[in-house]
Write a structure and sequence with these properties.
By secondary structure, the protein is of the alpha+beta class. Helix content is about 60%, strand content about 20%. Keywords: Coiled coil, Membrane, Transmembrane, Transmembrane helix.
């Protein structure tokens, strides 16, 4: 007689498959969690490393900015010192200018004229004085035009006043102080510094 299996084998097979499926599902979940944890740790490490690099860059930028400020301060001091040096050189160059102006005023004064007041503002001179006649003032102006130190005489006022019989005419004369020409060595040095 044939053997008939009356046990519920299909149900057992279904339960076995269900257990196998649940096991694989649990294994997949564990693998997914592990993979997610690895990915999280990897990217977390990347972010931490990038943050450390950013912090290092910020520190280095702060150091460089401090150095830049120091350099700017040094540049300001350098410009200040160069400006002082320039002023000193200009003063040194103009040291004898007034001596030359007074010497030239004494050389150019015409006979029969006298200077009472001299005012200088930059290169402009205002000369006030007295003269015997208009011709003496004209002679004085011609002498100024021939001068190597003073130039551009311009008579603004001449009037007869009876206060002094020997010098009855009062005059006001404007003139310019010529700028001294640079010496060849100084001109070369100035061009060399500009290049």
């Amino acid at each position: 007689m044939a053997k008939i299996n009356l046990l519920p084998w299909r149900e057992e097979r279904r339960k076995a498959q269900q257990r196998q499926f649940n096991g694989l599902l649990g294994l997949a979940a564990v693998a997914g969690l592990a993979l997610s944890a690895l990915i999280y740790l990897y990217y977390s490490g990347q972010v931490t490393g990038q943050n450390q690099r950013n912090e290092l860059l910020r520190q280095e930028i702060a150091v460089v900015e401090t150095k830049i400020k120091e350099i700017e301060e040094l540049d300001k001091r350098k410009q200040s010192l160069l400006a002082r040096k320039q002023i000193i050189e200009e003063l040194q160059g103009k040291r004898y200018e007034m001596v030359h102006v007074f010497t030239e005023l004494a050389k150019t004064i015409a006979d029969g004229a006298q200077i009472s007041t001299i005012r200088q503002s930059g290169a402009d001179l205002v000369i006030q004085g007295r003269a015997q006649s208009n011709a003496r003032v004209s002679s004085y102006m011609r002498n100024i035009m021939a001068s190597p130190v003073i130039s551009d005489p311009d008579l603004t006022v001449i009037e007869a006043r009876g206060g002094d019989r020997a010098l009855p005419y009062e005059f006001i004369l404007n003139a310019k102080v010529k700028q001294p020409a640079a010496e060849p060595g100084q001109a070369d040095a100035g061009q060399g510094g500009a290049q």
